[in-house]
Amino acid sequence: MRTYAQAFVFFAAAGLAPLVVDDAFLLDTLVLILVWGCAAGAWNIAGGYAGQISLGHSAFFGLGAYAAALCGVRWNISPWYGVAIGAAVATAAGTVIGFLANRLRGPYFVIATIAVSQVLLLGAARWRGFTAGSEGIPVPFRAGFWTLGIADKRIWVWIVLVLALVVYLLQLYLERSRRGFQLAAVREDEDAALSLGVRARRLKVAAIAASAAFTAVCGALWAQYVGFVDPLYVFSVDLSVRFALAAIIGGLGTALGPFLGSVLVTTVETWLRAEFGGLGSHLVGLYLILYGTALILMVRYAPQGLMGFFRKS
Amino acid sequence: MRVVNFAHGEFLMLGMYAAFWAFTLLHADPYLTLVVAVPLFLAVGWGSYALIMRPIVHTSHNVQVFTTVGLSIVLQNLALVLWTGDARFVRTSYYASVINLGGAVMNLAQAVAFVLAVAATAALFAFMRFSYTGKLMRATAQDRSAAMLMGIDTGRIYALTWSVGIACVGAAGVLLAPVYPVYPTAGLQFVLIAYIAVVLGGLGDMAGALIAALIIAAVEVIGSYTIGTSWKEMLYLLLFIAILVVRPAGFFGQRGSETLGV
């Protein structure tokens, strides 16, 4: 019951904040917390619940971002179609990676996911005629809800909050349902799960595909919100690590964990960028040093993450 | 050791920076730096093992992956903060010299790097194959508990194996510095090739890795010639993924070894 209460407080606070907060900077931080929280939650479906650790999830994020941007630039249709197209393409890509997950385990799978995201990075950066190459694409701003050209950051908070709730409920489903238990069995001991008649391969592929689809939706909304898609960022390994890091800090395989992790990661990053970003761009590396150190320390000393502290107390 | 080090490329990058700084500040020739770099990186390897790897070396693969990925991020960005993201060059006096071998013209530094790399690989191969310590290392990798029961100090062997690996990659970085620009993420492109070579050749198979490296080089050159240089990385990444799908144990490795969790 207490986990529901925590989640209720978190989402209610996020939903009501735009009514009282008027500061654009704070609202911007809130939107980013929710977007990165959703992405970390989507990563958690594959990495936390199914135990398929991927460091190539930026591939799906980038597919979503490009789908939304290209809808506006190339085909002149609503970015909502881009959300759908991105999710569909990412589901297909996720199925392919799910197939890889059935062939590979451990570090091999991780390297394979990195390779896939790098292939997409190179493809997007080199295919100038279609993706505009490594210069990136500015996403056109056309005012209106249907074209996702929304200047009011409060509306954005509510849009991404809906996505956050969907991702949270999907994770909750994996925590409570029969299918979720089967997935946990596959994660803990695949051979034992198989011998009990669990369809391990199919479940893994489904988890990775769902994870990919939601990551792509995050990418599409993020592209519309930020207004610029840079292939070297949206397909980077750093971004994949960021999804994983938020989930690990919050607590792997917990529904609320990725969002709590995102609160910490995003605020620290925003603060450090604001503090040191102006002093010469190479100092932006500071927050990544902090990321890396946090990652090393968390997996060693607190593998349960923030949710682990909550449970103990 | 059965630990995949995702920070391998960053140690290579540190090797390149070591050559760069020795050259810029002390005017030391990179090949002179090499003599100092090997013991230095042996020490760096030992230190990083004691500090970061020792507590997690027997935990799950996921913990190992995240720890070495974290280490990679820290080292990359330490280099970025300390030395900025500018590409730097080691411009030796013989930078533009070439040698002509029966019609094949090669850059001198590249040729020297090739010869030294082959020599180092041969030495490492001989060390692993014939020396007593090498035997202990292989025994520990094959079955840790059995090795322990035979009285092998597996903790020390792990530390030593890790340090030798770091020393090798640091030396490789020093050798690459006269040929390639030095920048904080320079390690990535090389380490990607290294992973591909290792997987292609079969994990823990040094001769296999050497042959695989030659195959990758051939693919790279032929691909650059026929399709264009800008797509060559794409080509070997796709080759890599294809190999993982078709035969994850590599050309010469034992089929099915990847499902051991490696």
Structure description:
Chain A is mainly alpha-helical and 313 residues long. Chain A has 15 helices and two strands. Chain A has a two-stranded antiparallel ribbon with strand order 1-2. Chain A starts with a helix and ends with a helix. The model of chain A has no long low-confidence stretch (mean pLDDT 84). Chain B is mainly alpha-helical. The model of chain B is unreliable at 258-262 (pLDDT under 50). Chain B has a two-stranded antiparallel sheet. Chain B has two domains: 1-91 and 98-184, no CATH class; 185-248, no CATH class. In chain B, 38% of the residues are buried. The termini of chain B are close together. Chain B has ten helices and two strands; from the N terminus they run αααββααααααα. In chain B, α4 crosses α5 (132-142) and α5 crosses α7 (154-176). The chains are: A mainly alpha (313), B mainly alpha (262). The interface between A and B is large, with 42 and 44 residues.
User: Segments of chain B where pLDDT lies below 50 for 5+ residues?
Assistant: 258-262
- Main beta sheet of chain A: 2 strands, antiparallel
Strand line-up in the sheet with most strands of chain A: 1-2
Helix % of chain A is over 70%
Radius of gyration of chain B: 19 Å
Largest sheet of chain B: 2 strands, antiparallel
Report the principal-axis shape of chain A: globular
- The SSE order of chain A reads HHHHHHEHHHHEHHHHH
Give the termini distance of chain A in whole angstroms: 15 Å
Average pLDDT number of chain B: 83
Q: Number of helix segments of chain A?
A: 15
| Helix/strand class of chain A | mainly alpha
**What is the global morphology of chain B?**
globular
Strand content of chain B: under 5%
Strand order of the largest sheet of chain B: 1-2
